[in-house]
């Protein structure tokens, strides 16, 4: 099975995007994948904003990308695009950090007016970084994500069904990755 890096690109402490990704991680783990979580907000600001390629946190993040067979990239929509902190991290990775990897792009946002931010803003960046296969992504409205005090999360049924579908398609695509198939 695959090693999946699950990257949350929200700077928010109480991030819906983050909680949604960690919720979906569980489904991937249940399907036999090893999931490594990376929350961009935990990377020191001086490393991200100072473009410090040699900072231990950036070196570590780069190694996590290298190790991964596949990457989930989740971002809140900010100003009709992906978040600035996600871009700050991607800018510090090698140009082709996604070479050979299967990628699932996900976004949360406040308005369906920006549902295409995944395809018009995020997808071109992922392509430029060499992603082998970017599967269908999904945009979830923030109002469809409810965070509970016990740390759990629920997603409105309409959104939940589509999210499950894209995660399962991503998981199935991992099984078809030539390198993984060859590894048995
Ligand atoms: C600074 C800022 C800008 C935002 N801009 C947009 C936007 O352009 N389009 C949109 O649909 N939602 C926008 N939103 C709403 C967020 O995308 C949405 O609430 C998202 O779920 C927040 O995710 P988070 O909790 O992980 O940060 C914005 C929110 C903030 C704080």
Question: How would you portray this structure in words?
Answer:
It is a single chain. The protein is an alpha/beta fold. It has a single domain, classed as Flavodoxin domain (Rossmann fold, 3-Layer(aba) Sandwich). 42% of the residues lie in helices and 21% in strands. The chain has 7 helices and 8 strands, in the order βαβααβαβαββββαα. The protein has helices at residues 16-30, 45-49, 56-67, 84-92, 117-128, 157-175, 178-183; strands spanning 3-8, 34-39, 70-76, 102-109, 133-134, 138-141, 145-147, 153-155. The strands form 2 sheets. Strands 1, 2, 3, 4, 5 and 6 form a 6-stranded parallel sheet that branches. Strands 7-8 form a two-stranded antiparallel sheet. It is globular. Residues 178-184 have low confidence and may be disordered. The structure holds flavin mononucleotide. Residues 10, 12, 15-18, 76-80, 108-111, 114, 142 line the site of flavin mononucleotide. Flavin mononucleotide (FMN) binds next to helix 1 and strand 4.
The main pleated sheet reads as: 6 strands, parallel
CATH class: Alpha Beta
| Whole-number count of domains | 1
- The geometry reads as globular
CATH level-4 homologous superfamily: Flavodoxin domain
Spatial gap, N to C terminus? 9 Å
Return the CATH topology: Rossmann fold
Alpha-carbon Rg, integer? 15 Å
Beta-strand content: 15-25%
CATH architecture: 3-Layer(aba) Sandwich
Could you say which small molecules are bound to this protein?
A: flavin mononucleotide
- Total strand segments: 8
Helix-strand category: alpha/beta
Mean pLDDT, nearest integer? 94
Low-confidence residue ranges: 178-184
What is the number of helical segments per DSSP (H or I, 4+ residues)?
A: 7
Helix content: 40-55%
């Amino acid at each position: 099975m695959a090693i999946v890096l699950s990257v949350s690109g929200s700077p928010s402490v109480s991030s819906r995007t983050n909680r949604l990704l960690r919720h979906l991680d569980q489904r991937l783990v249940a399907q036999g994948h090893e999931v490594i979580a990376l929350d961009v907000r935990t990377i020191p600001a001086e490393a991200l904003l100072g473009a410090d390629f040699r900072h231990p946190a950036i070196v570590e993040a780069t190694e996590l990308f290298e190790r991964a067979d596949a990457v989930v990239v989740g971002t809140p929509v900010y100003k009709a695009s992906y978040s600035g902190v996600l871009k700050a991290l991607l800018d510090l990775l090698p140009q082709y950090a996604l070479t050979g990897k299967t990628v699932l792009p996900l976004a949360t946002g406040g308005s369906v007016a920006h549902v295409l931010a995944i395809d018009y803003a995020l997808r071109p960046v992922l392509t430029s970084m060499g992603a082998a296969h970017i599967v269908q992504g999904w945009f979830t409205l923030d109002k469809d994500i409810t965070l509970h005090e016990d740390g759990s999360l629920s997603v409105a049924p309409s959104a939940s069904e589509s999210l499950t579908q894209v995660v399962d398609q991503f998981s199935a695509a991992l099984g078809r990755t030539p390198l993984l198939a060859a590894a048995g």
